[in-house]
Amino acid sequence: MSKTRISILIADDHSVIREGLKILLGNEKDFCVIGEAATGKEAVDLAKQHSPDVVIMDLSMPILNGFEAMRQIRRARPATRLVVLSAYCDDEYVERTSEIGAHGFISKEHTFSTLANAIRQITRGKCPFLSLAHVDGAAQKSRKGAPKSLSDKGRNDGLTVRELQVLQLVSEGAANKQVAATLGISIKTVQKHRQQLMDKLDIHDTAGLTRYAIAAGVIDNSTTRKRSPA
Prior knowledge:
By secondary structure, the chain is of the alpha/beta class. It has 2 domains: 6-137, Rossmann fold, CATH 3.40.50; 161-223, Winged helix-like DNA-binding domain superfamily/Winged helix DNA-binding domain (Arc Repressor Mutant, subunit A), CATH 1.10.10. The chain has 11 helices and 5 strands; from the N terminus they run E-H-E-H-E-H-E-H-E-H-H-H-H-H-H-H. Strands 2-1-3-4-5 form a 5-stranded parallel beta sheet, with helices on both faces. Helix 2 runs parallel beside helix 3 and helix 8 packs across helix 10 (187-201). The N and C termini lie far apart (42 Å).
């Protein structure tokens, strides 16, 4: 493994989130995913084993929650940087993770590029914790331009982490009900994210979303399956 690459451990109890992040992080030349954990205990064990540069940690983890997992990782591997990626972004959660010693807190509603840039800044020691907890996504949301090209491998066009998760599942053939169950959100919220995806990407059908996802590296062509009615 090249010493210039940032080694990353992904800790999230949803397999689709781990798989999606692994693909997106793998598209970045300076990142290397060295492991995935589905529980807090697995995250601690893998962090002890591999000593990653960064652990991306969800807070809602089984067996051992994200808070306690981060405490144990901090004790065992103090050089490892901890980045929280969570749907829960109340000030209380941000404060608790900061007190534990996390180095960044990113909402799942922020773009993947926000997460990637945060990881780079944190590993360089250039970014204080709170500046990552309140990233303003308005600039991304207000970007204007021509319809998105499918030829730019690895781009994500200002999509949020949640939108990327929905894109991955929809492009793999999951119906709205399946997406909602997998991500723990309502069908109405899934429909909202699908519409936002189409609006941002200037794409008007599911087949177009699938083509985009393949071209952007969100999914592999071999992972698409027979679609169920949405």
